[in-house]
Amino acid sequence: MSYETLLVEQRGAVTLIQLNRPQALNALSSTVMKELIDAFAKFEADDSQGAAVLTGAGEKAFAAGADIGEMADKPATEFFAQAFFDGWQKGIASVVRKPWIAAVNGFALGGGCELAMMADMIIASEKAKFGQPEIKLGVAPGMGGTQRLTRAIGKAKAMDLCLTGRMMDAVEAEKSGLVARILPAEGFVDAVVAIATEIAGMPRLAALLNKEMVNVAFETTLEQGLLYERRTWGILAATEDKAEGMKAFVEKRPAVWKGK
Ligand code: CAA
């Protein structure tokens, strides 16, 4: 299926999704949200696909935020009646079980930074810039910024970014714990797809459950999280891939994964 605001392609076992409104710095309109929900649902349903990469088309931006043009004249009651931002959480962040990476190639501001933080991992190009500048528009983050950014980089820096609206470069973002790795701008997307390909080549159930287990750490106490980890480990211990992985190690040969 072709989209108005996205480019989607499969590179082997990796789905590469590009936000494709470069003339508006890939601003996140309602159409982008609806199409992304659809693209992620198709990725999720396709057994040939093991990981996804989300990036922005054009040289400048991952996404420069929610679409200000769309929001400027919208009455407050309509944001509420339409549950304007709900789809990001309900259609993407809480439903995608397979691993996906945000490849931040430029500006990730406002909703762009918030969308990147919904990913399992952010990989930044050396040109990436992150920020929550909503205060300068008289509002605040509305797609998770105050919550996810604070959990990712702590109160001091989250307050700094939200209250001043300033941008943080890739080096500061990596030092702060927002970004997993910084890669050169040259060949950036291909390099992230290579990392996603490595992840897609892992035993599938182990990938799903490693992701789920790390995410549980944000939702619960240490004691409950550790219990969750031990119980979930038990599920993995019952898989054919566990038997194969350990046997292959002992026999000093590559494992052949079945995804069950
Ligand atoms: N929404 C709609 N259009 C946007 C946009 C956005 N968030 N960000 C940029 N654009 C458009 C610009 O209007 C401009 O369009 P025109 O050529 O038609 O005028 C085009 O993209 C290029 O932008 P600039 O000319 O501004 O490019 P620049 O290089 O001079 O500046 C920038 C780049 C600093 C990122 C600047 O574009 C900017 O500040 N953008 C807005 C960032 C922002 O405030 N984001 C938060 C949005 S609110 C939000 O996201 C709410 C939420 O939490 C859910």
TrEMBL record:
CDD domains: crotonase-like. The keyword Lyase applies. The keyword Lyase applies. It comes from the Bacteria. It holds the Pfam family ECH_1. Belongs to the enoyl-CoA hydratase/isomerase family. This is Enoyl-CoA hydratase-related protein. It comes from Novosphingobium anseongense. The lineage of its organism: Bacteria, Pseudomonadati, Pseudomonadota, Alphaproteobacteria, Sphingomonadales.
